[in-house]
Amino acid sequence: MLCRPHGPCTGNVNCQKILKLTDKQKEDNDKWSGTIELNKDDIVFKSQGKELIRLSLANIKVIGEMTTAADPMANDWYLIFVDKNNEPYYIPAYANEMERFQKQLGEKLNSIIVCRLFSSIDFDSNIIYPNEFAGHKLFDFKEEPPKNLWEKIGKFLGLGRPIIPELTEVVKKYKNNI
């Protein structure tokens, strides 16, 4: 069992207690991280009662995860679905019902869907499915190049530049869909 947000159960904490959120906690979490579900063969992500993403499993070719260096109060960990057009869709890994979703998705794919980057505090990524690529990087992270003189001066002074996630060649070249 995976306990949010600290990872696999170690027996040192009561995981069942941690996972049982009150209705108020679920409502607060929905404002920031939304809710995910598997509806027949569609992945559905909602936030504050509005459907934001609906993806057919038939159009997905790779499932992965990504973490960022965002502060602890922001969504910094995402489940990523890459479609057959190499378009990534980001869903916060802290979304309500994530554990149930992962279990249902794993059953549908005859695989185990487990996120492994729960403790990462920097930019990182991982392919979860298909199994033949599990553990490989999903993204290469590149610094956005400066666009003007002020940005060049900022880069020279060591001020951070925005980081752009780019799909790895492994993902871009993979042709099969789920």
Characterize the structure shown.
The protein has 178 residues and is α+β, with helices and mostly antiparallel strands. Helices cover 23% and strands 33% of the residues. The N terminus is likely disordered.
**How big is the Rg?**
18 Å
* Outline: globular
Give me the number of helical elements. Answer: 5
**Strand order across the largest sheet:** 8-7-6-9
Regions with little confidence, pLDDT below 50 for 5+ residues: 1-22
**Percent range for helical residues?**
10-25%
Question: Taking all residues together, what is the mean pLDDT?
Answer: 80
Beta-strand residue percentage: 25-35%
Order of helices and strands: EEHHEEEEEEHEEHEH
What is the number of beta strands? Answer: 11
- Structural class computed from helices and strand pairing: alpha+beta
Mind sketching the topology for me?
Elements: E1 2-3, E2 7-8, H1 15-19, H2 23-33, E3 35-39, E4 42-47, E5 50-56, E6 60-67, E7 77-83, E8 88-92, H3 98-109, E9 124-129, E10 139-143, H4 149-156, E11 163-167, H5 169-173
Short description:
The protein has helices at 15-19, 23-33, 98-109, 149-156, 169-173; strands spanning 2-3, 7-8, 35-39, 42-47, 50-56, 60-67, 77-83, 88-92, 124-129, 139-143, 163-167. The protein has 178 residues and is an alpha+beta fold.
List keywords for this structure.
single chain, about 180 residues, alpha+beta, four-stranded antiparallel beta sheet, three-stranded antiparallel beta sheet, 11 strands, globular, disordered N terminus
